[in-house]
Amino acid sequence: MERLQKVMAEAGVASRRKSEKMIQEGHVKVNGQLVTELGVKVTAKDLVVVDGVPLSRQRLEYYLLNKPRGVVSTAHDDKDRRTVVDILADDEITTRIYPVGRLDYDTTGLLLLTNDGELANKLTHPKYEVEKTYVAKVKGQVTNDDLKQLRLGVMVDGRKTKSAKAKITATDAKKGTTIVQLTIHEGRNHQVKKMLKAVGHEVLKLHRESYGFLTLAGVPAGQWRRLKTSEVMQLKKL
């Protein structure tokens, strides 16, 4: 048996805390009975209904995708563009999954997808500070002063970013470009692009090469793999 709010969170209804609030506000029924107090436990045989919709308690799935350019990091797109979920669906993955966080349309690299709502909420919550490493090709020659600013934090949308790791991996004086590796543990919209722009460098290409301890080793662009049980457990410990 598991607590009702945990079951709701794992089904992707909302975070555990938000699920608790929904229970207390009278949004949830178990086997036809309204539940408004916390502490109720349910089994797989119990019928849980949230706002009139039966809860789907499917097997939890976890995937790592190497996102290619020109694909949207969402489950559905109103402009009918190809989504990251479509890539897995093309390979006969029929579980209802969704991406953990987002990568821009033109950004490539490591993206997690799951139907574990509780884990997804934790991984994207700022307080858990999961490290994400990006490689960016930028205009201009990045200087040591630029790197120092990035490490200490720069102003983005009126707020200073937290400390980051930054280093130059290559330069091309003829083309006037630099390759920068940047590791952050926040998840603001377009954060890496905005950080580099704040020190005077427009991003030409951006690739996420790692997420926490996970890397893209053995996963070509546009391909994916299931996470190992040990990797899922390690993610939950983050």
UniProtKB/TrEMBL annotation:
The keyword Isomerase applies. It is an enzyme of class 5 (isomerase). Pfam families: PseudoU_synth_2, S4. GO terms for molecular function: RNA binding; rRNA pseudouridine synthase activity. Keywords: Isomerase, RNA-binding. One of its GO terms (biological process) is enzyme-directed rRNA pseudouridine synthesis. Belongs to the pseudouridine synthase RsuA family. NCBIfam families: pseudouridine synthase (TIGR00093). This is Pseudouridine synthase. It comes from Paucilactobacillus vaccinostercus DSM 20634.
